Amino acid sequence: MIKDSETVISSNADMLSNYIESMKNTDIKNFNNINLSPGIHYIIYDENRNIIFSNTVNSIQITDRRQNKKLRNKDSFEKLNGTLSTSRVVDVKGKNYYIFVTKDFEDIGDKIGYIAGILFTISILGIIVSLISGNFLTKKLLRPIKDITKTAKEITSKSLSKRIVTNGAKDEISDLADTFNLMIGRLETDFEKQRRFVSDASHELRTPLAVIHGHVNMLYRWGKNDAEQLDKSLITLKSETENMNRLIENLLYLAKGDNEVLSIKKEEFKIISLFKEIVEETQLSYSNVEITYNSNDQLKVYADYSKLKQVLRILIDNSIKFSKDSAKIMINVENKGREVSITLTDNGIGIPKESLTKIFDRFYRVDESRNKTTGGTGLGLSIAKQIIQYHEGRISAESKLGEGTKINIYLPQLIYR
C-alpha cells in the first residue's frame, strides 16, 4: 500500500516538473493548473519560499533541513500528519522553483491497530451485554421449569388438583406445562376412580357382611337345636352370598371399564336377531311380561353382540322389577341418518324428575327400599352406560311418575357396515 502511494506521488511530481520545465520560454506566472491523479495536492514555491501555485488550502513549511534533504535525494518521501509527500526542484530561467506533492495517507499498521482497538472494545462490551442479557433470559426461560418442579414436588395423592399456571404463550415451555397438567389430570381421574371404587365396594359390602355375620352368630347360639332358625338362616345366608357375588362381579366389571381393559368384540349382525333372542328368553322367565319390538328386518349393526344384549337385559330387568302387576315393554329401533336410535319404553312406576340425571351413577337408588326387596345392587344402569360409552354412544332416560319410563340409546353411524 505504501509503495503504491509512493509510485503515484512520484509520477505526479515528475509530471509537474516536466510541465514546468516546458515553460522555460514563457513566464512561469502563466502556469495553468493541470489534471493530476485523484487525491494529489501540490504547492509550488519560488526561491524566496513564496507560494506561486497551489491546489490545496494547506501549506507545507519549507525548512532548510527539509530543503537540503529534498535536494540531496530526489525520490525521498516523508510521512507527516497523515500525508505522504515528495518534492522536486526545477530550474526555470535561472531561478529554482520547489514543487511539493502530497497525498493523504493512513499507515496500515496504525489503521489495523485502531480497528483492533475498536474490535476489542466492542468484544468486551458484547461479552458484558451477553452475560447480563443471558443471565436475564436464562432466569426468564427457567422460571416456568422451576414452577413445574415446584408444583411437582407439592403434588401428592391428596393434592392432585394443583395445576401449573401458564402465561398463554405458544412455546415449548408452555407445551411442557400443558402436557404436565394433562398428566396430572389423568392421575387425578385415576385416583378418584380408585378411591370411588374402594369407597363404593366397602360401603356396599358392609351391609351383606353384617347380615351374614349376624346369622352366623345366631346359628352358633341357637341354630344347632332349632331347625326352623337353621333353615331361615341358611336361606338368608344363601341369598346374601348370591347378592355379594353379583355385587363383586359388577364391581370388577366396572373396574375393568375404568382401567380401559374392558374387552369389546364387535361383529356385524342383524339387530332383529338380538331382539328375537332376548324376547324369547324374557318370556320363558316371566310369564306375566308382555314384550314387543319394532325394527327393520335388514338393519345391521357392527357392535359387541353379547355386550349389547347385556345392556338390553339390564334395562328389561329394571322395567320388570319396577312395573305394576304386569309389565309391558316396547323396544323400537330407528335409523336416524348418522345414528341408530334404540328406545325401550315400559309402563312402570316411573322415576322422579330430580332423580333422572342420577340413575346412571354407581349405587344410586331412587328408593333404598326398592332394592332391598328386588335384590338390586344399584350398578346395573352404570354398567349399561359404560358399555354404551365403549361403543362411542350415549344413553339417557325420560320418565313420569305413575306412567312409566323410556330409555334412549344412541349409537353413532360408524357401527354400520
TrEMBL record:
GO (cellular component) term, any one: plasma membrane
Domain HAMP: 139-192
UniProt subcellular location: Cell membrane
Lineage: Bacteria, Bacillati, Bacillota, Clostridia, Eubacteriales
Alphabetical keyword list: ATP-binding, Cell membrane, Kinase, Membrane, Nucleotide-binding, Phosphoprotein, Transferase, Transmembrane, Transmembrane helix, Two-component regulatory system
Membrane disposition: Multi-pass membrane protein
Origin superkingdom: Bacteria
Pfam families in alphabetical order: HAMP, HATPase_c, HisKA
Location, primary (coarse class): membrane
Residue ranges of domain Histidine kinase in the record: 200-415
Transmembrane feature ranges: 112-137
UniProt name for this protein: histidine kinase
Class of the enzyme per the UniProt entry, highest EC level: transferase
Recorded GO MF terms: ATP binding; phosphorelay sensor kinase activity
Listed EC numbers: 2.7.13.3
Keyword DNA repair: no
Catalytic activity: ATP + protein L-histidine = ADP + protein N-phospho-L-histidine
PROSITE patterns, per the entry: HAMP, HIS_KIN
InterPro entries associated with the record: HAMP_dom, HATPase_C_sf, HATPase_dom, His_kinase_dom, HisK_dim/P_dom, HisK_dim/P_sf, HssS/ArlS-like, Sig_transdc_His_kin-like_C
